[in-house]
Amino acid sequence: MASMNIGNNANIGNDEIEKFSATGWWDNHKLYRTLHQMNPARLTFIDEVLRKHYQLQDETDSISFKGRKALDIGCGGGVLSLPLARMGFAVSAIDMNDNAIIEAKKAANQAGLTIDFQMIDVEKFANKHEETFDAVFCLELLEHIDDWAGFLESATALLKPDGMLFISTIRRDLKSKLLAIYAAEYVLQLLPKGTHDWQKFLNPDEIMAVLHDKGLRFCDSAAMVWQPIRNNFILKRGDDTPNYILAASKQWRGRVAH
Question: Residue 149 to residues 88, 211, 213, 214, 224: CA-CA distances in angstroms?
């Protein structure tokens, strides 16, 4: 692969990196608890989209993506990386926080999983590596990035033709201001105060406008709806709940967003 001509400056500020420097990614730390609660819904969506994309007929086939490579950008402590490895992917995972990478490596070793964890930003990773990936994941990340469009340029450059990009983030509307910030951080205290900046939230059409310019097509999306009684998240398509996940492909064979 030719040089991507991607800048060397990280798109995420030091204040955001420091925000997630706390240890305890696997110890029920308040900052990371929601990610674990989201993970089943995120993995269900990923499984459904990839099974359709690769035309896997048998549900048992969907747990084995052997021979395919995945990149988890902003991997944190490996909450997503480990399940991806269990699905059969050869996983590379990157993050800018050394504490997170240390905990991710420890968790993978304890689980007997081989994952290539690196402390590096996506721009430097893209310039350093000539490989591309079948699936690239940017989950719960864009809302913490200043130059999110530049970040997506780097992420999409790392996709193979027919590769799939997964993004999950938070809508920027009144509901997200009330639920994702006021309720979650101040009333229910599900997250530490200051975890999110409402101005950095992104709507799906904003993201897809950038992805379309990079040659990607919309595949699917779903809201991730919090169930307080069950203390988990469920997927709902066609819902405008603040948290959502979407998938886009360079050569999708299915439906296209209008």
Answer: 30, 9, 11, 10, 23
